[in-house]
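Attaching the record inline, Q. Sequence:
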Amino acid sequence: MSIRIGALQSSAIHNYQNATTDVVLQVTTDPTKIAPKIMGTAFAPTSFSFIGQALEVDNRYRLRIPVRVIAATKSVQGLLPGQKIRVSAKVLTSKEKRVAALLIVSKKIEVLTPPSMWAHSLSTIRSGLRSATGTGDAGALIPGMVIGDVSKQSVDFKNDMRRSGLTHLVAVSGANFAIVSTFVLWGMQFFFRRVNHRLIATAISLTAFIALVRPSPSVLRAAAMAAVLLFAHGTRQGRDSLPALGFAIGAVVIADPFQARDPGFALSVLATAGLLLLAPKIKPKILAPPIAAMVFCTPVIVAISGYISPMSIIANVLAAPAVTPITIVGFIAALISPISPPLSSALIFLVKPFATWVVWVARWISQYPVLTLRTGLYGFAIAAGVVALIYFGRKKFAIALLIFIISISWLQRFPAGDWHVANCDVGQGDSMVINLHHNRAIVIDVGPDPQLIDRCLHQLGIKEIPLLILTHVHADHVGGLQGAKKNRIVGTTWFGNINAGAKARIDNIEIDVKWPQQGDFDGNPNNSSIAATFTSPDFTLFAAGDIEPPVQAQLLSRIGKVDIYKVAHHGSRFQDFDLLRELSPTIAVVSVGSENSYGHPAPSTIEALTQLDAKVLRTDVDGAVAIRAERHRLSIQRSKRWARLFFWN
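Structure, as predicted:
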């Protein structure tokens, strides 16, 4: 790996660092759409990502070096591996060690060569299956399981599959490869009498299958293992799976050293090792595969994601019967889709109920809490220790340790007990929640990320939103709207349809809108923010959106002292300090992303609030916060605490 990295870093393409130049590329992977991202306060343009081989740079250097391409142009859609293109790109340093550079493309590309007949044929099969599976999450799951095509899968669906422990079904895995290998080998008996001929035909078929699904880490591992097993079977030298796994690890890592640090490859190897080493010791047998795979994979899962789903065992047991029919029938449907689309659709119709079942299981299990630990080496060490205790027979101690962890995590749960006002940790954005009890709340802004706001509202137990206030149009305040609406009843929405002087009352919360003033708009979207006070017998709150000093100055003498102040504009330096002195909040909440590029919150703002004896809570430091109020006496809970080692989420 070091030798390859050295070669990449000495490439001539580095002569054009931070400059724009022409590059001739050969496409290596299919361009995939990147999930919408926030650029400043707006959504970034739709972009596509793929890896290519840089063949020529600036019409001067001829080379063959891998690069990552991010293209904000739809002209890359439909490109297939093997095609050559010319792009005008800005060359940047990439964090991916396996590529020499990151190329940012914003202009239309020039296609130099058409796709080969082989690539076109594979693409026809992939698009045929994609069309036959129809819409919905079930229709998106089948192409992923059968041929590794995840283009139809939504972010929410992938998140549900990951949270329920079924993420290995989102795309082709080693298990799917084993099913196809067995099916193809069985089918070859009808064409060839001799075993060696069957094995050769199977190997050729599986090579084509790898090209069809695209070589992911798990597929490469499974392919290497299958090759060893086929060879051993053909030469009658025995078929021991553990040496085959060892050979597969060595072969894949030698061929591509970067797989050694790929979490997907690690999880694939560990799941297989669990099935070989631990599954035979587990009874009943029906629970053995998911338990064994989960136990061995847990240290890596915790290290990269920070949580474990105990309910994933049940999810895998329930989903397991559906995997084989989806894989085999879907594989046949894919092969015949270019020849007979109606027959392909009919076959998909037969297995779609199985896919619907898997989707339902994922949605159901994802609603249960997961055990959250710290990521990185800390979480890996704890999980590996527990796994070692289980494997080497210290079951009683391991069970006692798990009970202790669960008990401590329950005591450290967030939010613990009653709360009145919460501020979600949604990164660089805003989202505040006012508790109406009985799983109801007023929500002010929804942050930039649907997953983050959905997770926060789920954690707070919110199922109904009688009033949703979207203060202004910027994406860091409204981008998570679909996540807030997910499986929730939303009543009235305020978004550009409310002005100063409007009043409302929901339960015991009185709402008084202070801004925007009708007809008074300076063209700055921040100054169109809905700013309002919320008053109850237990607390007073002023939520200011992103209003800046010109508007803040107009609100002087119109608000008075408050208990809680959601600080305007993420605590930026643009504050009217006279208004801060008038508010004199007991608690000041700053909703801000960690290490954001804006320098929020500004030291001057924090200093001014501190001098007013306000308790400053920052989501980048404290995480999500929950405030309990009783007759204007406030207490605080933070989701980030040094002692919060593990907790249910």
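The first strand starts at residue 20 and ends at 27. The two ends are 38 Å apart (CA to CA).

More tomorrow.
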